[in-house]
Design goal:
Helix content is 33%, strand content 20%. The protein has six helices and six strands; from the N terminus they run αβββααααββαβ. Strand 1 and strand 2 form a beta hairpin.
């Protein structure tokens, strides 16, 4: 079934914002989210998930538990996500230390309240309080990373 593919397949299929809980094998969809824009930076290189998982055996963080989170406001969503980490970031940086620069460059944008690498990479993302903040950041990042693809989308 879907376990032969990545855990990110289900959120893409249902086209909703989701949280991976447990070890990432349980996907929880949230119908109510505040108005948040995501900016995605896709570098001009790919990262081998197999290599990352081979290096990440001891680096996994505590898995999330499925809870009834309140995501009705940006503040409540920010409170939820602010201390969350991607367990795969550490091994990703062994292969591609430039990911750290991409994440911090996104985070430097006005209105960005969270930035990280997505899954096992190489795409990085930032969450912004408004579309205008995301557009402003995209303009700056396009100059900084002229060979990378940069997208903006609204979480729903």
């Amino acid at each position: 079934a879907l376990t032969k593919f990545g855990a990110d397949i289900m959120p893409c299929m249902i086209q909703r914002a989701c949280v991976g809980v447990g070890i990432g094998d349980e996907i929880v969809s949230y119908p109510v989210l505040p108005s948040i824009c995501a900016l995605i930076v896709k570098p001009d290189f790919n990262i081998s998930s197999i290599d990352i998982y081979k290096k990440s055996v001891t680096s996994f963080k505590e898995p999330l538990e499925a809870l009834k989170w309140d995501f009705a406001t940006i503040d409540s969503f920010n409170k939820f996500i602010s201390d969350k980490e991607n367990s795969l970031l550490e091994p990703i940086l062994l292969f591609h230390p430039e990911i750290k620069n991409i994440i911090s460059s996104i985070r430097d944008g006005n209105g960005c309240f969270y930035s990280n690498v997505s899954g096992s990479g190489s795409a990085c993302f930032g969450l912004f309080e408004s579309k205008q903040y995301a557009l402003d950041a995209k303009q700056k990042l396009t100059k900084l990373f002229d060979k990378y693809k940069i997208y903006i989308t609204k979480l729903k």
